Amino acid sequence: MSTELNKMQIDLIDKIAKENGFMEYQVTTNKGSEKGDNFLGILTLITLDNGENKLELILKSAQQKDTFRKVAPIRRAYLREIYLYENVFVVFKKYQDDHNIADTFDCYAKIYESSTVEENECLILENLKVKGYQLWNRKIYMNTEHISAVLKEYGKFHAISMAMRHKNVELYEKLTEDIKVGIWLEKDETWDARVKYIKSVMVVGHEAVKDSTDLKEFLKKVEDSLPDLIHKELRTPEYQQALVHGDCWCNNIMFKYENELDKTKPSSLRIVDWQISSENSPAFDFCYFFLIHSTKEVLDDYQSYMKLYYESFSQHLKSFDCDPNEVFPYARFEKHVNRYMLYGMFISFVIMRIMICDSDEAPDFSQLAEGEAFLDSLHFKIKNTNLLNERLRTVIVFIKEHNFFTY
Question: 126 or 377: whose pLDDT is higher?
């Protein structure tokens, strides 16, 4: 993967340099990610050095290969993320400041520059790694301290847009009018195509429980219900409540620790990769994140984590002088969770493979063949299928035992 910068990128970096007092400087570039770390773009580490000071940046640039751009919503993804950084987060910060909120949601990177030029879409962000933030090991379960920290921040994030929607609906609608619908939702996608894709994903789950007649029958009934759940019920206004992150796996969350020798509890975190953010239910982020990172013991204690999330969410709502029981009562959140757990399980059938694979097994999406579907390419083979099946089975059993699907 080349780390060579094009003229537009060089001009953006020079602009950043001048704005930060770097008149004469050297630029060093290095590869910023491995296969399996980032799917819709290229990460390049950039260091500006003027001999006295350094400025550490990360360039996130779009894939330019035509075959990839034809099958994946690359441009929409970059425009969406740029809009989040340069508009939504700015408005969110002002909205929190206007309400004199002390414990603000600010768990995102600083953006320096961006480009929306066709085939040259990019963002230039602060390099969080040099500030002590690091990724969780995606192959292992998160501990309770990390899970709790993330859920608390998601609660604060969701509360901002829900408070705005409740108290200043015109501001909310103007801010979100172009980002309500997910970038993957195609208006011309046929029902048969949707059903076909769901069935292709469910193959992974069926493989994980192939030795259990009971679980196979259960999963088949779930599969038959998913098209209506995902593409009809969960798209109704009842579930379009707030802006959500939408991409809640551990590679999009970075943690910092007060003591580098003790990484059991993070002191702060940053959420990255906002490319598929959209309007949805807070339960979407909760279920997605919680299901794929939790041990069986944590899953079985899910009600405690729901309450932890909701406490953070409700406290932030109250900071905007909103009554949680009026805006989004716990019983309603619980109802949403009961529906989104099935969707979360479905997502786990895609994401778990990516989490568990070795870097050399991850697909290179820039090499997609003509006509090959991006989402279909996620069904790649990995060596550690036993671990994959074990983790998927844990999720499936949890869904069944806790009656998130009744028939």
Answer: 126
Of residues 9, 1, 120, the one with CA closest to residue 57:
9
Cα separation of 199 and 207, whole Å? 12
Q: Specify the amino acid at residue 97.
A: D
Token pair listed for 99:
């309400």
Judged by phi (left if over 0) then psi (alpha if -120 to 50, else beta), residue 403 lies in: left
Report how far residue 77's alpha carbon sits from residue 113's, in angstroms, rounded to the nearest whole number.
Answer: 16
Is pTM, for the whole model, over 0.90?
Answer: yes
Helix (H) or strand (E) holding 240: none
Segment 99-122, tens digit of pLDDT? 999 999 999 999 999 999 999 999
CA distance 6 to 205: 43
Write the burial class of residue 310 (CB in 10 Å: 0-12 exposed, 13-18 middle, 19+ buried). buried
Contact (CB, 8 A) for 245 and 347: no
Residue 358 region by backbone torsions, left for phi larger than 0, else alpha for psi between -120 and 50, else beta: beta
User: pLDDT tens digit string along 139-192?
Assistant: 999 999 999 999 999 999 999 999 999 999 999 999 999 999 999 876 567 899
Residue at token pair 């048969």? 192
Extents of the domains making up the chain: 7-401
Strand order in the sheet with 54-62: 26-31, 41-49, 54-62, 122-126, 111-115
Give me the torsion for CA of 288, 293, 295, 301, rounded to 10°.
-50
Convert the pLDDT of each residue in 301-356 to its tens digit: 999 999 999 999 999 999 999 999 999 999 999 999 999 999 999 999 999 999 99
Q: With contact defined as beta carbons under 8 Å apart, do 175 and 91 qualify?
A: yes
User: Which pLDDT tens digit goes with each residue over 52-85?
Assistant: 999 999 999 998 888 788 878 999 999 999 999 9
Residue 48 amino acid letter: L
Helix or strand (DSSP H, E) at 174: helix 169-176
How many Å separate Cα 330 from the centre of its chain?
Answer: 24
